[in-house]
Amino acid sequence: MLKADVVVIGGGQAGLAAAYHLRRAGIDHVVLDAQPVPGGAWPHAWNSLRLFSVARHSSLPGWPMPPFPDGYPTAGHVADYLAAYEKRYDIPVRRPVQVTSVTRDEDGLLVHSDAETWAARHVISATGTWWRPFRPLVDLPGRQLHTVDYRDPLEFTGRKVVVVGGGNSGAQIAADLVPHTDLTWMTRRPPRYMPDEIDGKALFDIATRHGDVGRLGDIVAVPPVREARDRGLLVATPVDAEALAGADVVVWSTGFRPVLGHLAALHLRNAEGRVAVEGTTAVGEPRLHLLGYGGWTGPASATLIGVGPTAKAAVAKIAAAPD
Question: Which residues pair with 183 in a beta bridge?
């Protein structure tokens, strides 16, 4: 059995932010990442994905993201940055390591994986949501994809495509597809765009000060979305069963759920499928910390700019905990 003061589960942006602060605090740690390459979910995103903010407002703690020459960085630029960040701070990542469960023992927590078992004083779970997409159970004759499966519009040229979802991924994928396909964009309610001047930096500031960004709208009008909207090409319609059945392809941009299956043995999840937390610390297990899953684990904590402050707070709590 291997030992570390802190085991971080997940090597994406949240795991790297945690490792940065653990390193600064002089706390022995290891990061277990299920992916074979650095970058978390970013290498798996669709090709045209853009961030909501310019590079200088999309950085992890300690090192600004290098500038991107064309405004809002692409997913590929982010993945390259995270890989370089990992090297810059010599973060002790082991990959690919699939964590299967976390259990208690008398001295702390045990992290079980397909490669080895680690004994830890504390565990930081930073597995995110990308790997648990929500897919409606609908029987349709055409091909069905989720946001996680979509890559490039040219694959669907000339085909009848329906995108379902009124959030940012739905809007961006619809805007990506509209020049190439016979597109229908379906949403449960009319799309709500944030003011065009709002970007990720402003959203983080609002979330930090007020906690509620939902009143501003759901969709950040990044340039491709704004262009398609202003040209009248991005028009949403209500969800329609007949139109879904007549589509060649349906892309479900219907969101994600937190990846928490590895914590099942601790019996901490509530009826909403989440773990109750105070800050980032699990209410039912003070040696467990959850980082980067969304607003319930810290303001804007699922974003590059937002995860740093909550990672810093989590590590401070670990450093102050009795042995």
Answer: 161
